[in-house]
Design a protein that fits this description.
Order of helices and strands: EEEHHHHHHHHHHHHHHHH
CATH class of the largest domain: Mainly Alpha
Radius of gyration: 26 Å
Number of strands: 3
Strand content: under 5%
């Protein structure tokens, strides 16, 4: 080494403690004996860290910054158009069994001025019960199948590349779209909806797509920029939701249920082509390194040893995604506790947020609101616009100018969501529903901020495993929330239809307590400023 040379370099956070960056400074003087190697642990705030958490050998930076956001937008639009149609299509098909449909384009709408104990009201309650059960069956079918494949796809992306994990959910959505198209074209029995959902979920569903997208994002962004980019991806779903809610309601009233499903199918095909042609791989497959070793034995072993080696390698390949997930919790105790609290909060709030959205259409079609598909679209679009405004205010104003950190925004969102759910449950009229939506302005903040914070404090080579855990918990929470709140709505809607939202508010409050506990558990760590 040349004399009077100063070498200064930084190493990425180690698995021993991802919250600490290890900085090594080597100072060389003219004498070899005067060389000093000093290693100091310097705390790093994830909300101000501009470094990329990977080595250049493992990740290839894409030429364009905005790559998979169009794929997220098309996937969201296709999926949400299906959800909007299926809920009301089930209501229509069940009502058709009782000869209670106005025409073939929309379900029977109640009269808000009729008596609560009238025969019409009782019939509507019966139709609502059966329609909510079919909605629950479809959610359960897709959720259970997705839970079986999601950990495998997302965790394996750490060493097999991100691109396959992005492609498989798009293929699954395309399969589901084809199934729905056939069901509506030929008026197939309702149990075909379950078959279609199960086949589509073999691709991992929205949970697998979210896990792959956020792992892709973690590879290509710094920890400082990650919360903003995660929120932007969430925002694409909100943008798609606004357009779909405004468009599909009118579309169903004018043309029936089939055109929106055809539109969804066309979007899934376009999305599939986009991912295949325009989304590059950023983490080349390094599976061979995981299974380095002789693939065959040429002396003294013969065929038996070759077969034994191949079997062991196959077994390791099958177990590696799950061992990769387990390794995330073997790093250190503090990180394990932090992730456990974050994961519990994600699961419970997913149950609250998704579960409430599943029953929202039925709740709005019931007394005392009696809204039709068009007005439901207006209300849902207004709620989504409000959510996006809340995200923008939270990230661009509260985070930037008020210096509120990532977990602080999560707590703000959970407080807003809890108040909004309570107001929805006691709303006496349609204007009160809009007021409740305004109270829940920041309800969209918790999930992206919890994801972003978990990614910030986790090692760069475990991002796929991390988001596979989050994806599994989101799907589990969505499934449990949909099942519990749908059954609860069916059991209580005759005497207090808003009771389900009081239960949703309670679970949201529990998620709030867990997130506060995560903040308190990090109060003594060097990165306590990153919590609030």
């Amino acid at each position: 080494m040349r004399n009077d040379t100063l070498s200064h370099y930084e190493r990425i956070p180690t698995e021993a403690d991802p919250l600490i960056r290890e900085r090594t400074v080597e100072i060389s003087s003219s004498s070899a004996s005067s060389q000093i190697n000093a290693t100091t642990a310097v705390p790093v705030d994830p909300d101000t860290d501009d470094s990329l958490n990977h080595s250049n050998e493992e990740v290839i930076q894409p030429a364009r910054k905005w790559i998979f956001e169009p794929a997220a937008l098309m996937f969201a639009a296709a999926m949400l158009s299906q959800v909007s149609v299926i809920t009301q299509y089930l209501y229509y098909r069940v009502g058709q069994q009782f000869n209670e449909t106005v025409n073939s384009t929309r379900a029977f709408v109640c009269d808000s001025h009729s008596l609560a104990n009238s025969s019409e009201h009782q019939l509507i309650n019966h139709i609502q019960d059966e329609a909510s059960q079919w909605t629950l069956y479809r959610m359960a079918t897709s959720g259970i199948v997705a839970l079986l494949v999601l950990p495998l796809f997302a965790s394996a992306s750490d060493y097999m590349g991100r691109w396959p994990a992005l492609l498989l959910p798009c293929i699954g959505l395309a399969v589901d779209s084809v199934g729905l198209l056939l069901i509506l074209l030929f008026d197939l029995p309702l149990y075909f909806l379950l078959i279609s959902a199960g086949l589509g979920a073999l691709g991992g569903g929205f949970g697998a797509l979210f896990a792959a997208m956020f792992a892709y994002l973690a590879d290509t962004t710094s920890r400082k920029d990650r919360p903003m980019r995660v929120a932007i991806v969430e925002g694409t779903f909100g943008l798609a939701g606004v357009v779909i809610e405004l468009m599909v309601g009118w579309w169903m009233r004018l043309s029936g249920y089939l055109p929106p499903i055809i539109f969804s199918f066309a979007l899934t095909m376009a999305n599939l082509l986009y991912v295949v042609c325009f989304v590059p791989e950023v983490r080349p497959a390094r599976l061979q390194r995981k299974f380095s070793g002789p693939s065959s034995v040429t002396n003294g072993g013969g065929d038996e040893k070759r077969i034994s080696n191949k079997f062991r390698r196959l077994l390791r390949a099958l177990l590696l995604p799950y061992s990769n997930i387990a390794g995330l919790f073997r790093i250190n105790t503090r990180l394990s506790l932090t992730l456990a609290l974050l994961f519990a909060s994600v699961c419970i709030y997913s149950a609250s947020f998704i579960g409430s959205s599943v029953v929202s259409s039925l709740y709005q079609m019931n007394y005392p609101f009696c809204l039709d598909s068009v007005f439901i679209g207006y209300l849902n679009a207004a709620k989504i616009v409000g959510f996006q405004i809340g995200v923008a205010v939270g990230l661009l104003i509260i985070r930037r100018y008020c210096r509120v950190k990532t977990l602080g925004l999560s707590i703000l969102g959970l407080i807003s969501a809890t108040i909004g759910f309570l107001a929805t449950g006691v709303a006496p009229s349609t204007p009160a529903l809009f007021a409740a939506a305004a109270m829940g302005l920041f309800s969209m903040l918790p999930l992206p901020m919890l994801r972003a914070y978990a990614s910030q404090v986790s090692p760069p080579n475990r991002q796929g495993a991390l988001f596979s855990c989050i994806g599994v918990l989101e799907v589990t929470g969505s499934l449990m929330g949909s099942a519990c709140f749908t059954l609860l709505y069916g059991a209580t809607q005759q005497w207090l239809s808003g009771f389900v939202y009081l239960a949703v508010a309670s679970s949201s409050f529990l998620a709030l307590l867990l997130t506060i506990g995560c903040c308190l558990s990090n109060c003594s760590c060097p990165c306590r400023r990153s919590s609030l």
